[in-house]
């Protein structure tokens, strides 16, 4: 009994000692292990100063918890030590000295090994906790939001041709991969307000139609045919239920709107997952006209390509059904050549070839009470399959290039069965090369890309019927506090209303990644930047004899209203069309009206002049008809606009929000967000 307790007690003491050693090291370094982190998620924190205070208190509370645990383990260790001492005395009194010494040595030996293993585990845990919190100081704990640490590059940048010059910062940026999303330095307030308006519309629709508004009756033939048409040509509705149906909902919407930040177009973010040099590299890479950045189809490769080095053809091709068409004899021959090229022929080549032959020839399966054996190729799921296919193709390419004397590509790269080539020669040479490669082996041909039928892509998907009210906003470090405030208002105002039992689900749109920022489908002309530097931006008179717009045109490259300056980056005239324009006043520097038109600027401005002369009661008319003269009106084009009306209206809304002209003294008093 005493012998077993001696071993058991020493094991418990080892555990307690390792705990005390680990906690003592954490206290010295002020590191909080994951199990001791105290988390607190308030619905809303008014400002960052309160957040710092809360994080500091949480950090101190975590340290106090570690101290309490350390004291508890120390007292437990003292208790178990006294019990071990008493059991050791009992064991000494009931056994001879040799037996007692032997038992004591065995117990100490095993527990010494046990304690060493525990120390290794605890040391590994300590180093892991230390590395995860190495970027935090004694106050900035895991509770607080810190800058995301830079991870080592995992992507490879391939230069075509190799003499392309990239700065170290540009290379470091591209090594992050084109799917990497830089943290936005600004929060788009227009998108934030528009996203909340979409959320309010969803709540109004939920209250108007109820959580289960769909009909449970089976659809008729007419409904079925209409549903097929709707799936092919979906109809988007922007209808919003009238307000004031639910007082609680209107109170929530008004409270939430007041809580949204409204001053200025954006507010700065003080956190970034890129260094200042890498942020500058984004601008330099996006402005470079001497390279084109592309992502490889396979593996993590990024290709900055010089357009001047490949003015003719970029060719890609695929090996048709590679895995299943490799003949056993040809594949084994290629494998034998590869095995014989080893510096150390162990295991012997004939043994490896025999094992590979067993893998290739003993692949069988049963179907419909009949047995089938694979007579060509390699099974798709076999681990040796990709290596076997690459080995076969490499051997065939070696034989092909050894005897081929026709036109060659400048660059030839292959990943398993996908081939990428660059030709600086006529397309006839490309055809000759591809035809020659297709005859490289009787059972293998290069396959061109085939068209996919549109009907195979129009596969209907059933829409989810879950009662979910999503709040989708663009990601930014500053948006989370606003979203938490909206959720807190929802829980306090609408959570008890049975019409709005579904809690809102918050989702964040990903910020633009490097592919969206750097990769362009259309190449910039090399002299484009030179032309832009020599061009004067702004709006200029057309000098037509009967034009009434020329004398009111503002010939400046920018428009300044209050403290906001809009830089004009194109050249316009009175006859320019499809644009966003601004009407301002010479006497009132705070007044501006933002409009859009798909017609000529002069035609749209003529309508404004007509509304003023006829006193039609528009907002522009009401301003310039009182104590103003017709010569006080100024018009300027701001930017080009899409031909699509909805996209043009969306751009107009964004610029209205920029100038804050939807609020007095602005003239866009009828402003409203476009809701889908």
TrEMBL record:
Residues 135-145 have a biased composition (Polar residues). Residues 576-669 form the GIY-YIG domain. Gene3D superfamilies: GIY-YIG endonuclease. Residues 125-145 are annotated as: Disordered. It comes from the Eukaryota. This is GIY-YIG domain-containing protein.
């Amino acid at each position: 009994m005493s012998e077993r307790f001696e071993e058991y007690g020493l094991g418990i003491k080892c555990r307690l000692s390792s705990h005390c050693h680990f906690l003592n090291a954490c206290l010295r370094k002020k590191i909080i292990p994951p199990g001791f982190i105290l988390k607190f998620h308030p619905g809303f924190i008014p400002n960052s100063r309160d957040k710092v205070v809360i994080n500091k208190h949480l950090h101190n509370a975590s340290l106090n918890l570690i101290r309490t645990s350390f004291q508890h383990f120390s007292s437990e260790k003292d208790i178990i030590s006294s019990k071990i001492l008493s059991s050791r005395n009992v064991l000494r009194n009931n056994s001879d000295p040799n037996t007692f010494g032997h038992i004591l040595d065995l117990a100490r030996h095993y527990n010494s090994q046990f304690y060493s293993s525990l120390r290794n585990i605890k040391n590994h845990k300590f180093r892991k906790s230390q590395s995860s919190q190495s970027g935090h100081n004694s106050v900035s704990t895991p509770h607080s939001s810190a800058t995301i640490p830079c991870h080592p590059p995992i992507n490879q940048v391939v230069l075509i041709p190799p003499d392309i010059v990239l700065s170290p910062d540009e290379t470091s940026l591209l090594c992050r991969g084109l799917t990497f999303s830089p943290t936005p330095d600004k929060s788009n307030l227009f998108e934030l307000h528009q996203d909340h308006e979409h959320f309010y519309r969803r709540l109004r629709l939920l209250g108007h139609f109820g959580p289960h508004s769909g009909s449970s009756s089976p659809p008729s033939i007419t409904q079925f045919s209409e549903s097929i048409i709707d799936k092919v040509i979906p109809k988007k509705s922007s209808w919003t239920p009238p307000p004031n149906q639910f007082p609680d909902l209107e109170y929530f919407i008004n409270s939430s709107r007041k809580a949204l930040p409204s001053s200025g177009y954006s507010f700065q973010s003080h956190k970034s997952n890129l260094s200042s040099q890498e942020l500058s590299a984004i601008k330099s890479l996006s402005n470079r006209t001497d390279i084109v950045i592309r992502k490889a189809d396979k593996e993590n490769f990024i290709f900055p390509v010089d357009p001047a080095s490949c003015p003719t053809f970029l060719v890609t091709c695929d090996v048709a059904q590679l895995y299943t068409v490799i003949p056993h004899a040809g594949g084994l021959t290629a494998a034998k050549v590869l095995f014989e090229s080893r510096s150390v022929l162990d295991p012997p080549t004939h043994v490896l070839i025999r094992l590979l032959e067993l893998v290739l020839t003993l692949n069988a399966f049963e179907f419909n009470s009949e047995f089938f054996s694979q007579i060509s190729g390699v099974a798709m799921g076999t681990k040796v399959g990709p290596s076997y296919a690459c080995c076969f193709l490499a051997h065939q390419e070696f034989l092909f290039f050894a005897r081929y004397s026709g036109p060659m590509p400048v660059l030839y790269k292959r990943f398993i069965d996908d081939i990428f080539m660059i030709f600086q020669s006529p397309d006839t040479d490309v055809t000759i090369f591809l035809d020659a490669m297709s005859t490289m082996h009787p059972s293998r041909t290069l396959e061109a890309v085939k068209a996919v039928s549109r009907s195979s892509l129009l596969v209907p998907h059933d829409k989810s019927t879950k009662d979910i009210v999503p709040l989708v906003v663009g990601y930014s470090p500053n948006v989370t506090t606003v979203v938490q405030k909206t959720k807190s208002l929802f829980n306090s105002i609408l959570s008890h209303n049975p019409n709005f039992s579904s809690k809102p689900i918050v989702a964040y749109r990903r910020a633009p990644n490097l592919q969206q920022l750097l990769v362009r489908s259309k190449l910039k002309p090399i002299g484009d930047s030179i032309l832009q530097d020599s061009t004067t931006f702004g709006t200029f008179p057309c000098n037509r004899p009967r034009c009434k717009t020329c004398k009111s045109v503002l010939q400046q490259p920018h428009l300044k209203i209050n403290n906001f300056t809009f830089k004009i980056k194109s050249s316009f005239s009175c006859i320019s069309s499809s644009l966003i324009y601004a009407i301002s006043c010479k006497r009132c520097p705070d007044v501006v009206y933002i409009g859009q038109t798909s017609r000529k600027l002069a035609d749209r401005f003529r309508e404004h002049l007509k509304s003023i002369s006829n006193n039609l009661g528009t907002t522009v008319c009401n301003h310039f008809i009182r104590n103003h003269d017709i010569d006080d009106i100024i018009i300027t084009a701001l930017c080009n606009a899409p031909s699509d009306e909805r996209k043009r209206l969306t751009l107009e809304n964004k610029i209205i929000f920029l100038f804050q002209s939807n609020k007095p003294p602005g003239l866009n008093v009828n402003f409203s967000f476009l809701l889908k």
